[in-house]
Structures are given as C-alpha cells and as structure tokens.
Amino acid sequence: MADQEFTQIRLDKLTRMRELGHDPFAVEKFEFKHSAQELLDNFDALVAEDQEITFAGRIVAMREMGKASFLQLSDGDGRIQVYIKKDDLGETGWEISMLLDLGDHIGVAGKLFRTRTEERSIHVSVITPMSKSLHILPLGKEKEGESWGKLSDVEQRYRHRHLDLLANPEARKMLINRAKIVSAVRHYFDQEGYLEVETPLLQLEAGGAAARPFLTHYNADVPKVYEVGRVFRNEGVSNRHNPEFTMLEFYEAYVNLEDMMTRVEECFKFVCLEVFGSTTIDLGGHSFDFEKPWHRVDLLESIEKFSGIKPEELRDFDSAKAAMARVGLPTAKENNLGGIIEKLLERFVENELQEPTFVVGYPIETSPLAKKDPNRPGFTRRFEGYIRGREVCNAFSEINDPIDQRERFEQQLGARAAGDDEAHPMDEEFLYALECGMPPAGGCGIGLDRMAMMLLGSEHLREILMFPMMKPEQD
RNA sequence: GAGCCGGUAGCUCAGUCGGUAGAGCAUCGCCCUUUUAAGGCGUGGGUCCUGGGUUCGAGUCCCAGCCGGCUCACCA
C-alpha cells in the first residue's frame, strides 16, 4: 500500500471518529498528574488508594486481542501499558478505540492493576483520542532492551528529528542533557553574580575567523559578564564541526589567569552536579572527577615532554623550523614562531592530555588579544583547557593597554597582508574603548556544544544538536 | 575542498553471473476479552536517488550529478 493510500485510510478513520461524536483535534486540555515512570515507581501505593487515574501519551505499541486490546502509551520519558476491553468502554467507546493507530495521542482514565503476567497497567474505562497520526511511524519493536526496525538512517534521523526523538530514547536523552548543560552553565554564572549580555550578530566583522567573534565592549563598566551566543563558521562539517554552534564567553575584571582556571573548574563541577548529580562521570572507560583541580602544565614544557623538542630550540623561527622538520612535520606553510609552537602542541601534546589539564603560556603571534607575559618575551598570559585530548576552553588576561593592543592589531594586519586571512582585523571602536580606560580582566571562551559532547561522551557533535546542518533534499 | 563507501516498500534490510524485485516489521481483511517482538489465516504496497550511456535486456556495468556516512584538510 502506497503511503498516500495509507494516509487516506487514516483520514477515513478520523472522519468516522468525528461521526461517532469525538473530534480528536478539537481537544485542547487533558489533565493528568503522573508521568509513566511515576505511575510505575509508585504503583503499589497508587493501587492501594484505588483511585481512578488519568494519563496521556502516544500509542507506541498495540496488541489487539479481539474484543480487548493492549496499548503502550509513551509520554516521551517512559511508557506504560494500557488495557482496554469492549465491556468497559461501551459500544461507542469501543468503536472509537478500534479506530486508533500507532502514533496517535490519547488520554485514558481508569484504575491501575497488574495483568496475569504482572505487567503494571491501566485498566481503562474512558479513552480520549487527541490526535491522529496520518503516517506510518518508524517505531520498530523492542524486547528486553533490544529493538528492531526502528528509524536508524542517520540522514533521516536528523532530517526528521521528531521521529528520531520518539524512536530513539538515547537520542532524546542526549539532546535533553545538552539543554540541561547549557542551562546549568547559565545557573553557575548567574549565581556567581555575572550579568548575562547579548552582543549583536549582524554587525560582526565579516571573516573574523580567528580567535573570538565577540569583542569585549561591555566589560569596561560591568565587572562580570557572560554571553551564550551563536557563532558561525564557514568551514567544513565533521563530527566535531557545525557551521553554527553555541559559544560561552565570560569576562571578569580584576582577576588573573589562576582565577579564570578556578572559574572553569568550578563551572564544570557545578554543571556535573546539576546535570548528573555527581562530580564524577565515566567517559570512555575512565572515571573523571571534577571535584579535583585540573592539571597545570607549561606549554613549552609539555612540548618537550611529548616531542623531545627543548624550549631553547623554540626561541627563534629558524631553529624552531629546523626542530619541526627534525620530528617529521611539514614546515612549508609556517611563517612565524608562534604558529610552529601551536602546531607542535597540536601534534604532540593535545592527544596526551586525557585528564583535565590547563596548558599555560601561548605565543604572542597567535594571541592578539592576550596580555604579554612580563617575564617571558614572545609569550602571553593565556591558557587552554583540555579533556580527553580535546580543547574545551581558551582563556587569557585581556589586554587593557590601548597602545599594546594597537600594536597587536597592526601586527595582525601585517600577517593579513602576508596572506594570513585568519589574522585579526583592526577594530577602532574596541581601541577607543580601551583608550577610555578598562580595568584588568580575564576572559574565557568555552564551546558549549563540545562541552556537552565531552560530558555526554558523544563522538558526534550532531548528536547533541537538535538540528544539525543538512543540505536541502532534492524534490 | 580531497579520497573511500553508501542510497531498493512507511521502517530495517536482502537481491547471485545483466534476464521485468524479495523478507521481517508496519499496513489492510478475518479470528481471538490479561497480551507484551502477542498469535493464526489471508492481502496489498516499488520514479530500485536523479539524468545520460552500453546492451536484445540494467537495481546490477560505465559516465555525470544530488544527498548521506567515514577518513583527511580547515578549525572551535
């Protein structure tokens, strides 16, 4: 039977239901107190009360037995069995129930009971259909945790997320937890006295692909601000990249790098507690405890540890390039010392940082907005955090010296002229703000999609995005 | 952006050597008043991603394109 014919059959059932005096789509409200899980959890107590209960959900399984039927209703989180029989519903009620299909939403009223096989169920006296599904839903079947035939085609799961959500509980849980994580992040900064701000998206400097999309116009007069915002990148899609993603940025005046590290530690701990109820989570067979402070390592020392390249070799461009060649990396594209150092970090160090770790001391060329380290020429007061070999945050002491910042922008313009289109653009408005006076401040960015991926153990970014980027289907 | 793999019924998939497409579930009909991947009997359902080409004949072989997956590159 073609899909069109199928839809016509269900439309006919809808018409018949209306003829029998019930229009599912006319219903607005249906009151019920308990979720499916609550009914199951408190089953014996509720049975003892002997009260009529109500429940509403989607029909996700149906077993007809002649003049009786068993349905399973899902409220999204859980499902409970419902038992209906002709004697209880009456002629009209029974005829309406015979017009029900998988995918319909119904409300039921009745008493709780256990079947012969001890299945906790609702013995229904009244049914109230509230929507009619006009398509065959890819629900599949399941038994003891195993399932068959349900929607699994990756493309279709993302194109029809609503179907994914009802067919795949794991997918649903993943997306709910992502939302909880973002919410918990906000709770953390709110309770710490930060002001949430929103910066305009449509005025952003086009092509500002390097570093940060938001500039810190706000933090001159507001000591603690954060923003959860959408960011766009015209780059390839992968299991770690989506053209638009969600970024947390926070800024706090009068604090140093160590304070920012503490913020990050506290934020992760807070989120774990709020979302999972524990600071300890298991990922990839390892246990991570966010109660513990993160490791702190110096960038150059970590490069030496994992590549053997000594800090002295990374003092100037030529010897750094020679060292890079020695360890077998291509050097043709490199044109500055900082770039080489970051490449070495990427190739030798990042994968080794399984435990939560802050890498401190980034080169000046790749950190155009970070304060210089007074004790180390060529390096800045900047760190990145890594967990399971992946970057989770990028933080630094903001430059508040307008002269220094102007020089950095000019260096970036030079790099841009030399062909580096990732170089930071000049921003006169930002410089003007600094010239008017800005206190010392720490700033930090955390990719919330990747934070969610990490905390939820997902290997695919799209699994924690409700609507990952998909090209339009052809007609 | 490059390489490799994939696209067949509503869903999950099979389809041999090139000979006009199959299964399970879902659907539809009948039976069944405590079933649970309910069961029994029966039924229908296909632009084989699209467009070309080779061939007497293409789901199958060739070319181009579209969409997706994986890996790489870029990055967060």
Describe, in plain words, how this protein is organized in 3D:
- The protein is of the alpha+beta class and 475 residues long.
- It is 35% helix and 24% strand.
- The chain has helices at residues 3-19, 36-41, 43-49, 86-97, 154-159, 161-167, 169-191, 257-276, 299-307, 317-326, 337-349, 402-417, 428-436, 448-456; strands at 53-64, 68-74, 79-85, 105-114, 120-131, 141-143, 146-148, 195-196, 224-232, 244-253, 280-283, 286-289, 295-298, 357-360, 382-387, 390-397, 441-447.
- An 8-stranded mixed beta sheet has the order 8-9-10-17-16-15-14-13.
- Helix 7 crosses helix 8 (257-276), helix 7 crosses helix 14 and helix 9 packs across helix 11 (337-349).
- The longest helix is centred in the middle third of the chain and has 23 residues, at 169-191.
- It is elongated and about 90 Å long.
- The chain starts with a helix and ends in a 19-residue tail after the last helix.
- The structure holds one RNA strand of 76 nucleotides.
DSSP helical segment count:
14
Could you give a short account of the major beta sheet?
A: 8 strands, mixed
Biggest sheet, spatial arrangement of strands = 8-9-10-17-16-15-14-13
The unreliable regions are: 206-215
| Number of DSSP strand runs | 17
Radius of gyration of CA atoms, rounded to a whole number: 29 Å
Binned strand content: 15-25%
Shape, principal axes of CA atoms: elongated
How far apart the termini lie comes to 22 Å
Structural class per helix/strand content?
alpha+beta
Oligomer classification: single chain
Helical amount = 25-40%
* Mean pLDDT reading: 91
